[in-house]
Amino acid sequence: MKLYTIGGYGHTEDSFIKALKSNDIDLFVDVRQRRGMRGSTYAFLNARKLEENLAQAGISYLHFKDLAPTNEVRSFQKSADSAANSSKRERDKLSPAFIEAYKREILSDKERGEILGRISQYSKVCFFCVEKGHEACHRSVLTDWLEPIAGTATHI
What we know:
alpha/beta
């Protein structure tokens, strides 16, 4: 199995699906807490439309809500973004406080093997959240955490 990550920002509907297909992704794992996007620009990332597009592309879909940061964990990054006078879309890395909180509150009670067991029948698995850059999103912390078992993730 090979792991990948992708963000939604910066993509069009076509470029998003093409990026997945060109990497032969066979499982798409949504790790967002809320599976909706505001506005028309990213409406293709709303759960219903996203699942429809993935099905048409022959890509399986799973939502792992339990891997999304809680509001409490997200508050650490909101504080850091505010202090840096930055927004979610402008951020290029996560704050150390957020990373620590995400690992402690979300990953500490999970078993890597259990998560990988849920996806092990697929060969190319892509973890998704909205931030464009993987280092600005919890999906990078998640895939780094899975690395000892699954290897380094490719960021598309």
